[in-house]
Design goal:
This protein has three helices and five strands, in the order αβββαββα. A five-stranded mixed sheet has the order 1-2-3-4-5, sandwiched between helices. The chain has one domain: Trna Endonuclease, Chain: A, domain 1, CATH 3.40.1350. A hairpin with a 7-residue loop joins strand 2 (about 30-35) and strand 3 (about 40-50). With about 110 residues, it is α+β, with helices and mostly antiparallel strands.
Length: about 110
Amino acid sequence: MSRTGWKRREREVARKIGGRRYPANTGGRVDVESDHLESEGHVIQVKERKTLSLAQAEALALEMERVGAQKSPPKLGTLWIKRSAGRGVPTPWLVVMTEATWKMMNGRTPMEGS
């Protein structure tokens, strides 16, 4: 990926969720943010990597959860990962979130409390 390809990926995610991309020089950890009147807003960290360990993905998802919880009103914090498989090789976006973020997005699960 080129040195500016990550900007394109951040813009792509912003378009997908109807949000805005934050320039890298703002110093924050959030790459994309959205505000929705009818549903929860989002704070997102975007990564395109050849490899990303589960521990790294976990740490980034937890960080986005914390950032989202600090917003008023709270927002869903997620990590969007795209594997860089080489020029012309398409890969899907993976959306990673913690269980707490999932519950915030979906409410209680049917199995909870049993």
